[in-house]
Write a structure and sequence with these properties.
The protein is α+β, with helices and mostly antiparallel strands. It contains three helices and six strands, in the order ααββαββββ. Strands 2-1-6-5-4-3 form a six-stranded mixed β-sheet.
Length: 145
Amino acid sequence: MFLENPIERMLAEHACERQIKKFATLNDAGDYEKLVELFTDDGLFIRPSSPDAPVKGKRAILDAFKSRPSRVSAHFVCNTVVELISETEAKAVSNILLVSASGDVTPGVATPPHLVGAFDDTLILQNGAWLFRERIGSIQLRILA
């Protein structure tokens, strides 16, 4: 069995969960150059708000983020569960609450809809770092008030 040592297993799971939280932090900060470094070169990203428009590859993911209208956002990540598939592959699921506002006001006044969604992730261990090979988002609820 791979990663029989429970400490090694916990460290790998923690590293994956940290990448998930780091993605949210970098997204909210608008630091898309660092955000795309969390993906493999051929990584796939499917935005929760655009499930029919998959984006593949770091350059395309960066361009997709940079093309969005300016906004102030806060992504709250919870209920993350990481399952190691092998020593170099993990699957994870997380729930997300997104609150945002137009980027032309600081601090922004949050405007509905607020979104409750999820990410289904596949992470791969490459050169000592867990990277997203796939990050597939979905929306479960739109909060209108």
